[in-house]
């Protein structure tokens, strides 16, 4: 059942919100935006990487261009439920996403056994688009020699603009992950990333933000952050290794200029209250200086 092929191109920005900021923002956006038909939904992903984690390591270096591949479902799928195999590429601030819809059994047969599903059998399917997307996925898998590396799930509410339905905002909470049982069908039990309640806001737009939103974000002191769920979880795992398993004092820096938004610090004495040096990553001395006086979130 290889399903419809989709191609997206848009600018995406992320923001980390406290619960108070989240509640205030919801009140402000209600006159301008509507929640989508799915309400609160569960997003489940299996990310693919090389044996030595090359893709996530490269992503954390903040290159101009980066790419990743994941298998995604909306909710916990049964064998015959539809899932989405996605290639996500980012050049500067513009995100390009290609994805195809497959049954879970088809997707796992393809990813684990190299069995290519039939292309173009679904109503409304675009055979050429699907074939092209599969070519890109085939090349990605062959070039990087990918394997399933991590399961990441979170709870999401999505909103769309009342005047422009392509203008979207999503709020993700309860980000959780595991390194075993790397199948979407296994369920969503996993370890929470944050000890406290935060909302990861993502704004997806083809052009400029509406002025009402610019004002609201400024009034609430909400600023863009650089945040990759996979990348941040990987850094937290590294910090656990270097700190001997104790991450109680690890911090996630938040705000513009603080480790490009979000970086995990190791268990070393900090020179600023609420902030710790990120020893072990390239350029940590400079980043430690930039990160002073920025908001830091306990994890």
Task: List the topology elements.
Elements: E1 5-18, H1 19-29, E2 33-49, H2 54-60, E3 65-74, E4 82-91, E5 94-103, H3 104-113, H4 127-144, E6 147-161, E7 168-178, E8 191-192, E9 198-205, H5 211-219, E10 224-225, H6 229-242, E11 251-254, H7 284-290, E12 295-298
Antiparallel strand pairs: 1-5, 1-9, 1-10, 2-3, 2-6, 3-4, 4-5, 6-7, 7-8, 7-9, 11-12
CATH superfamily of the largest domain: VTC, catalytic tunnel domain
Largest sheet: 8 strands, antiparallel, barrel
Query: What's the average pLDDT?
Result: 81
Name of the CATH class of the largest domain: Alpha Beta
User: How many β-strand runs?
Assistant: 12
The structure class reads alpha+beta
Helix content: 25-40%
Q: Which architecture name of the largest domain does CATH use?
A: Alpha-Beta Barrel
Global geometry: globular
CATH topology of the largest domain: mRNA Triphosphatase Cet1, Chain A
Enumerate the strands of the largest sheet in spatial order, edge to edge or round the barrel. Answer: 1-5-4-3-2-6-7-9
| Strand coverage percent | 35-45%
Distance between the termini: 42 Å
Summed up, the helix count is 7
Q: Indicate how many domains the architecture comprises.
A: 2
Poorly predicted parts = 248-299
Encode the helix/strand succession as letters: EHEHEEEHHEEEEHEHEHE
Q: Taking Cα atoms only, what radius of gyration do you get, to the nearest Å?
A: 20 Å
């Amino acid at each position: 059942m290889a399903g419809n092929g989709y191609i997206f191109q848009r600018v995406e920005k992320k923001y980390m919100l406290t619960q108070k900021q989240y509640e205030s923002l919801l009140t402000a956006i209600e006159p301008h935006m509507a929640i989508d038909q799915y309400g609160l939904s569960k997003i489940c992903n299996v990310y693919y990487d090389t044996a030595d984690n090359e893709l996530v390591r490269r992503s954390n270096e903040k290159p101009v261009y980066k790419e990743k591949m994941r298998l995604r479902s909306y909710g916990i799928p049964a064998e015959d439920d539809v899932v989405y195999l996605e290639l996500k590429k980012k050049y500067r601030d513009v995100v390009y996403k290609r994805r195809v819809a497959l049954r879970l059994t088809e997707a796992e047969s393809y990813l684990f056994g190299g069995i290519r599903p039939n292309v173009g059998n679904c109503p409304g399917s675009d055979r050429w688009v699907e074939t092209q997307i599969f070519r890109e996925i085939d090349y990605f898998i062959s070039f990087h020699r990918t394997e399933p590396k991590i399961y990441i799930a979170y709870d999401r509410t999505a909103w769309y603009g009342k005047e422009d339905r392509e203008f979207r905002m999503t709020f993700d909470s309860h980000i959780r992950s595991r390194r075993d049982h790397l199948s979407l069908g296994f369920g969503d039990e996993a370890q929470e990333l944050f000890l406290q309640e935060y909302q990861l806001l993502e704004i997806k737009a083809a052009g400029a933000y509406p002025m009402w939103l610019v004002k609201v974000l400024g009034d609430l002191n909400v600023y863009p952050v650089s945040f990759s769920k996979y990348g941040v979880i990987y850094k937290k795992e590294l910090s656990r290794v270097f700190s001997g398993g104790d991450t109680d004092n690890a911090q996630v820096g938040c705000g513009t200029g603080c480790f490009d938004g979000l970086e995990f610090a190791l268990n070393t004495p900090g020179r600023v209250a609420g902030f710790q040096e990120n020893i072990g990553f390239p350029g940590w001395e400079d980043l430690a200086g930039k990160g002073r006086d920025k908001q830091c979130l306990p994890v």
